[in-house]
Amino acid sequence: MKSCLVLRHVAFEDLGALAPILARRGLGVRYLDVGIDELGRTQIEDSDLVVVLGGPIGVYQEDAYPFLLRELALISERLASLRPTLGICLGAQLMAKGLGARVAPGSAKEIGWAPVELTQAGLASPLRHIDGGHVLHWHGDNLDLPPACEGLAFTSHCPVQAFRKGPKLLGLQFHVEADPGRIEAWLMGHAVELAQSGIAPGTLRQDALRHGAALGQAAAAIFNEWLDEAQV
Questions:
Q1: Exposure of 9 in the CB half-sphere (CA atoms within 13 A)
Q2: What pLDDT is stored for residue 22 in this prediction?
């Protein structure tokens, strides 16, 4: 059986819409909770797919969260082998740093449901399925485009919303995996950040109802096509 290793930073940011897709493809999924579980080199090297999920910390906060040092080192080794790897939000930022790019606080936080603009490369990629649609944004850090990578999407506050290196490495700053049926977990888990940002939970709740179904369909198309291209 093929295997998928998932690096998780907070419990409610999980595989979401990606989980049933991997199950249908026969991939056995194992979560490791970063900072709690031991991250082994062999586990990461030998997995057919590695997914690095989001979280509310920055890749540059190694002093506050020392586990980031080992996590980044192991992710960097994985990326050097060009084996199938997907990063979402913090996961994309870790991938970008591992590939040699700068990651730093952006000019503004992006939290909520909104479209992204696709580059020509993005329109030719699996991300074309979200063209004109809304995705869930929840980040404050931006990244530079890593060397030898293609930028796939952008917004006015975030010039690199998605990137890829070849067919097997994909980083997404935004969330297409988020299950709108579990939005309450996000609203509770990020309650302090929402209050500090002046964002009403009810607005995100209503937008999840408005855009969630369409995003779920797009997510299935994106992930299935990318997994095919990555030969997972």
A1: 21
A2: 97
